[in-house]
Structure formats: C-alpha cells, structure tokens
Amino acid sequence: MDNFEFSENTIRASEWHELLREGRYERLNPAVLVVAAESALECLALPLNRFERIVVTSSDFNDGRLFSIGRQIRLLGYSGRLTVVGNVLPDQYTALRSCGFDDALICEDCAIGGVVVLDKALALSGVEYPVPET
Amino acid sequence: MYNYSIYDQQLVDQRVFQFRDQTRRFLAGDLSDEQFRPLRLMNGLYIQRHAPMLRVAIPYGELNSRQLRVLAAIAETYDKGFGHFTTRQNIQFNWLKLEQVPDILEELATVQMHAIQTSGSCIRNITCDHLAGIDATEVEDPRPWCELVRQWATMHPEFQYLPRKFKIAFSGSSTDRAATMAHDIGLKLIKNSVGKTGFEVHVGGGLGRTPVVARKIKEFLPKSDLLTYLEAILRVYNLNGRRDNKYKSRIKILVKAIGLDAFRGQVELVFQNLNPNTLLNKNTDISTVKSRFRSVFPFPVNLGSNRVAAAEYKTYSRWLEKNTLATKFSNYRSVYISLKSPDRPPGDLTAGEMRFIAQLADKYSDSLIRTTHTQNLLLPLVHESDLVQLWQALTEANLSIANIGTVQDIICCPGLDFCSLANTASIPIAQEIQNRFSDTDELHALGDIQIKISGCMNACGHHHIGHIGILGVDKRGEEWFQITLGGRADQSLKIGDRLGRAVDRNSIAGAVESIIRHYLRNRFDQGEHFLDTLERIGIDSFKEVVYG
What we know:
The complex is a heterodimer of chains A (134) and B (548). Chain A has 134 residues and is of the alpha/beta class. Chain A has one domain (10-124). Chain A has helices spanning 13-22, 40-43, 65-75, 93-98, 118-124; strands at residues 10-12, 32-36, 53-58, 81-86, 103-106, 114-117. In chain A, helix 1 links the parallel strand 1 (10-12) and strand 2. The model of chain B has no long low-confidence stretch (mean pLDDT 93). Chain B folds into 4 domains: 6-109, Sulfite Reductase Hemoprotein, domain 2 (Alpha-Beta Complex); 127-154 and 156-280, 2-Layer Sandwich (Sulfite Reductase Hemoprotein, domain 1), CATH 3.30.413; 310-396, Sulfite Reductase Hemoprotein, domain 2; 411-547, Sulfite Reductase Hemoprotein, domain 1. In chain B, strand 6, helix 5 and strand 7 (168-171) form a beta-alpha-beta unit. The A-B interface holds A 40-41, 61-69, 71-72, 75, 89, 91-92, 94-96, 98-99, 111, 126-127, 129-130, 132-134 and B 6-7, 10-11, 14-15, 17-18, 21-22, 25, 30-31, 35, 38-39, 121, 157-163, 235, 238-240, 243, 273-274, 278, 280-281, 283.
C-alpha cells in the first residue's frame, strides 16, 4: 500500500524470499515483514517468528485472501503482531480478529482512517456484534 | 428435523441486528453501493429487474409447517402473495422493499430461518438428497452432516470473501438426487472395503458458462476429518482462485488450470497441518447435532376413509405411481406435491397454497415438508392409510397433478420475467412445452424425460444436465434458444451435447415437441428411456427432425 511507510526495518516478503534463497539474510535484521495479498504464498515458506510484526496489505476489501493469510500465518506458529493495511470495512473486524490479526491500518479513502486496534475497535465501532455464547 | 440450540438462535438474531445496522448505514449514505453489495449478497439480497429479491435459506431442503406459514405471511405482507422455490432448495421473494428486509429477517428468525449466505462469494446453503433419511438404499442419513457443515460454514471468518460463490451438496445414497457432481464440492457417504462409512469427495463441479463434472479428489475420507478436509480445500481455493476475472474464478477453473493431482497435493499439504482442535467456527460436534434432530416417528395416523370412487380410480392410481414413493419405513410413503403445470410458473407457490400444505403436513406428515432440487415439494412420510384422503385434499386444491419426472416437470430459472442477468424468458417457454403435452395418457406413456431451461449462461435452470436442455441467448436484441441433448443430473452426471444452431422464440416449443415425438416413434418399446434411444439412434437423427 502506498500509505504504508517502508523503513530500513521493513522488508517485503518477495525481497526477503530472494535474500533467503541467496543466503544473504544473516546480515540483515528487519523487524517488519510486509506481505502483499497477491504474493502471500511466498511468505508461508519463511521463518516468521524472527519478525516483530507482519503486515499484510490489500487494496480491496473484497479480497478474502487476507483472512486465509492471517490464519495460515498463525497456524505456522507466528506469535508476533499481525497487521492488515489497506481497505477493510468495520464489518470485517470480527473476522479479521478471528483470523489472527491484531490491528488494521485503514487507508485514507476508507470510512475510517488511521490505526484500528481490533480488540478495542470491536467494542467501539458501533458495528460490533456480540459473539454468541455456546 | 434439526432444532436450533441457544447458540444457533443467538447467531441468527445477531445477524438480523447486524443487517439492520448495515441497511441503515447504506440508506444513510455511510456505506457505498460497492461496500454494501457483498454485505447484502451475504444476506441473500439481490437487486433484480423489478425490485430487490431475497433468497431465504432452506438448509438441505427441510421445512416444518410453522416455517411454511411464516413464509406465507412474508409472501402476503411484503411480496405479491407468492414465493418461488429454487433448484438449490431455497425460496425466493421477488418484490420486496430494501428497508423492509431487516423486518423480514426478524420474522424468519422467530422460526429458526434466515437468509445468511444464500448468495455472494461465500459458502452457500448446503443442499442434500431430498429423500435423505427415508431412502431404503442409503448408506447413512446425510442430514446431520449437512447441519454440521452448515454451522461450520455460517459466517466462517476465513471464508466470507472467496473468489466466487461456493456450493456444497451431500448424498447418502448410490442414487444421486442432489446433482452432487455439479457442485464445487460433492460429498457422498459410502462404505469402504472393510465396511467403514466415510465420504467420497468430489471437487470442481459446476454449471454456468463452463460446465464441468466434479472429479474425485478423495476416495475415502473418514467422517471425523470432514471439516478439516473442507477447510483445507477452501483455504487452497481462497488463496489461489482467480480474482481478476469473475468468469474464471470458480474452483473448477483452478482445478482445471493446475490439474487435479497438483490441487490434491496442495490440499493434502494444508490438511496434514490441521487438526480438529484448531478449527475456526466449530461450535459443535456430530453427536450433539444428531441429538438435536427431532424424531417422533412413528406418528399418529388418521385412519379415515380410504375408498376411491371407481370413476377416480385411474387418476388416483396415476398419482400414486408418479407422485409417491416407498420409503424404508414399511407402510409409509413419500408424497411429492408437483409445482409444475401449464398454469403455474415452475416452482411457484401462493401464500394460500403454502398455508394449505402446512395444514396437510400437520395432519399427514408430522408437520414436515421438504423442498427438492427439481423445484417441487415433498411430504416425507405419509401413512398408506392416509393416502386417499391426502390425494383428495390435494385434488381439491389443484395440487395433485401427477407429473413428477415427466416432460411437464420442467426445471426452469425465473428468466427475463424477474432476473436482471437473463437474456430470454424461461417461464413462458416451460408453459408452452407443458401445454403441448397436456394429455395425461400421453404424458405417462412418455416416461421420465427431464427438460431444464436457463435464460442465460449462468445456468440456474441446469440446462446442461437436462435430458433436453434449453439455453436462452440474445442475438441482436432477440431471444434465441440453444438445445442440448443427453445431459443427466444423476450419479452418472453428464453435460449434454449441443444439437445445432439456436432456434428462434417462435420455434423452440415446437422443436422440443419434435424431439420428443421422434423419440416416441423410434424407441424400442415403452421401457426404453429417452437417453437410451438417443444413444442408440444418435444425435444426428434428432438434428434432422429439428433442422430438416
């Protein structure tokens, strides 16, 4: 996403994959891995727990890959912070949380801008629906 | 029939609350058309030719009389007094107002019904053999498995925004009455070589503009692995299915593109790393589901008069032969109520008829009704001593037409009369064909011929798998019709072959009549089925009678 700031601490999954393949990754120590929804499969073969944060980007709220990527990352044992960046609807917060995301950075042209911590948003957004009791 | 738990009821109630809020935000301009679209579709709401259309789920085709009465009330209060039963066992209301839909959903929720996931790019309503649990030949009753999958798939957080719609069907019998092989996933309960029951899993079937027969991905899946295996298939599809072209985004295209073996390999890889304890959205287990199926069989019978007047005996016998079936319970038969006749759009039922059938169900079939994928209704179990009374009651209401499985029993989409996607009308074509075969003796002499009509390539009328299939196409603003022959929807599911060039609106009913009369003239004897005659004499022989 254009509005996600890349820094020296940040690396795209595709670049990281390349570095790993070439054995050049030991000298680098990025804290944030950025995974684009369309290249998600690359990241699933990477050692993920070395990253403090994984950011999954998507430009379309209809792109349901986000949810499977989050879920798969958690199933692979990743325990750090998992963020979605892009165009998501408040109506999707519950599902994003269930699939393992901690927060969402909503793009500017969406209904809500800025960072949304999903746990808090679920209680504040006005479109949170209580999880049924079993 | 399954009875909701507190959890099921809470979930449906909350979905009503959620959709009311989404509708309010849309009407207030807080949600754009684009943002509201998937939210309303996930709730069964389409914007159709004339008005919003709401598709209400009838999970695996099971209804009770209380539910049917509420559907009647909705038809009367919010629609024009009728509902339309679909090929996926649901019911549609075609003349609603958007702002009233939350109220309708609230009314549905009072009788354990909803419209969740009846459309949109998500896992749709689960369909099933309409004779499940009563067919003497079935391996196991698939309905509890349908319910387990329904609960798992309902608002599953991972699978609400798939590349495209996703349809799952179940069968527990060697005779496939649910067209399972035309589904994204078809599940058949089977016994393996050591007598264990499990699922044969088929994947990648579908109709639409690229008809594909599903292929076997798993020879034998233990029942305990059902949800994890489904999750694996859905995840591979969700991550890899095409999203750039909606005509190429169904799972059938993915399976075809990478090959069945490669697809199976990816599924197995995901599957091996899953276990039942990590499943999302699994709130129950099969034994709990089974315990919530109500069974009060055998139920009281009425023991009224079962005498048929001599003058009516032939008509009654025909009805008994065509519209009733033996079940695995001795002295009980299943009774079809045909929703097909020249004076009724296929699958339509008025509110008054719904109430009348609900009353009959209360009296004769333990308050239970089923919908079939052929757009008819079924009273699943009726005691033999009640059949005459039931037939008489149905006859008085003009609902005893004995045409199940005949050329009048046409599957048909709503077509241009309602659907904004349609190229052509479907309902008037069905009615014209039905009128050409209105002689009862002739109708019965013809035997089992399935005609299926779709008004566009989306194939909601399943034309590809009709013995005679009709597809409406638009040619420079005019309605034309392509004919296919030799399709079938059963366990030997086959896509029909195109007969030749399209015929015009005025010729289509005549062309179908010519095909059927050619079969009549050429069949070996009355026992030779249409498909057998077609195979024996060849499609070219039929071409000649249509095109000269």
